[in-house]
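Quick start: load a record and inspect it. Here is Thioredoxin:
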Amino acid sequence: MNRRLFLSTAAVAIVGAGVATYFIGRKADTPSSGAGASAGAQSGQAAGAQPSAADLLAMSLPDVAGQTQALSQWRGKPMVINFWATWCAPCVREMPELEALSKKYPGVQLVGIGVDNVDNIRKFQEKVVVSYPLLVMGMSAIDTLRQLGNPSGGLPFTLVLNADGSISEKILGEIDPAKLDASIARVVA
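Running the structure step on this input writes:
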């Protein structure tokens, strides 16, 4: 009986330590202004306070045709990078709005990065046509999302980048089209 009590107590202590570590780390990564689905949204922070998108922009990823695309090809212009997946209902719902914004702001490069496999994205693109490039990162994107300030690795996750490649805003969860429109207007101004 004592052994069972000891093991139960040890298990509770380990789980408790893990939960505490998660929330302490989350507090450091979470902006002070928000909670809920848009807790990742940030804007107007000092450059030193934001994680850099330089590693992301240094990546080359395949598109649905298998051609490697360097994200650096769009350096020097504002960008909207949307992490999404075919199995993510909010991701799919926001795609028409992202498409409309890409047409409204031709000087801004919108890129969709799929946290999925190329076959799923190719089949999806046959049904839902978007004019902006869809690149494939697969499940390894979850680590990238976390490095960019999305501690849960949740989808959808959208970044608005200034022309210099710095992060202007992070949006965790489904976009609000009007708010994203205003964010894009700020980076092109």
